[in-house]
Amino acid sequence: MTVANSIRPSLRRPTGHRFAKYSLLLLAFALLWALSAWRLINHSARDRTYTAAASVPPRQVGLVLGCARQLANGRANAFFDNRILAAAQLYRAGKVRYLLVSGDKHGTGYDEPRDMKESLMAAGVPAERIYCDESGFTTRDSVLRARWIFGQTRLTIISQEFHNQRAIWLARQHGIDAIGFTAPEVASYGSFLTRCREVAARANLMLDVIGLRSTPKPTGQKLPIPP
Questions:
Q1: What is the pTM of this model?
Q2: Sign of the C-alpha dihedral, residues 184, 185, 188, 193?
Q3: How far is CA 65 from CA 1, 45, 50, 138, 155, in A?
Q4: What is the widest separation between alpha-carbon atoms in the chain?
Q5: Is 49 helix (H, G, I), strand (E, B) or coil?
Q6: Would you tell me the crossing angle of helices 15-44 and 161-173 to the nearest 10 degrees?
Q7: Span 71-98, pLDDT tens digits
Q8: How far apart are alpha carbons 148 and 145 in whole angstroms?
């Protein structure tokens, strides 16, 4: 072995250094991807969200996006309560004729659509004006089923603003003329975690934009609103 060959291994960069370099590049790409997704979705929903019921253009149906009525610790979920208040306010203002409550149902003890319907009825919305979608497991499911199962191509989506923006973007990608009515925001530690999840959810949606994922059309019995 020559002297040059004997010292060459010591001049190579360690594997750990190379791993750190690639990790930083990957992190930078992920941050750029998430920022681009956030800005794209915000731009898509620009001038399509409303905070005052009086200014909302009337639509036949309002889509209320679901969440749990209670937190894991048993306390009331402010996201849920605020969406119910917003939906009832919009209905009383005559801006929607029907409300489609869409959320997750699994087992007998967890039923977001049922909880939303009961709360809306307690807020004065007639039962016959409320339709339940028990297969709204994700925001994507809720939006696509509103069109393909419930026959809606024009919607007012009701949730917190950041959630509305993502749902509006989804709706417009699938031929739905959507606007949003903003439920009051929630200022808490839980709200911060929810926003962190929102960043990830928006970045995930960009897989549709670049064609890495196709969205199958929901199937099942058609339930048009109104019947």
A1: 0.79
A2: positive
A3: 71, 16, 16, 9, 12
A4: 90
A5: strand
A6: 80
A7: 888 899 999 999 999 999 999 999 999 9
A8: 5
Direct distance between the N- and C-terminal alpha carbons of the chain, in angstroms, rounded to an integer: 86
- Chain length of the chain: 227
Q: Residue 167 in contact with residue 48, Cβ under 8 Å?
A: no
In the structure encoding, which two tokens stand for residue 130, read together? 């409320």
Token match 């941050």: residue? 31
Reading the block at residue 64, the tokens are 């209320």
Distances (CA, A) of 199 to 17, 19, 45, 135, 196: 29, 26, 16, 24, 5
> How many CB atoms lie under 10 A from the CB of residue 85?
16
Token code pair at residue 90 = 């919009």
Note whether 41 and 86 are within 8 A (CB): no
Query: Token digits for 5?
Result: 């060959």
41: left (phi over 0), alpha (psi -120 to 50) or beta: alpha
Q: Which residues contact 41 (CB under 8 A, 6 or more apart)?
A: 165, 166, 169, 202, 205
Quick: pLDDT tens for 99-124. Answer: 999 999 987 789 999 999 999 999 99
Q: Where are the alpha helices (DSSP H) in the chain?
A: 3-11, 15-44, 78-92, 112-122, 139-148, 161-173, 189-209
Nearest to 128 by CA among 91, 95, 158: 91
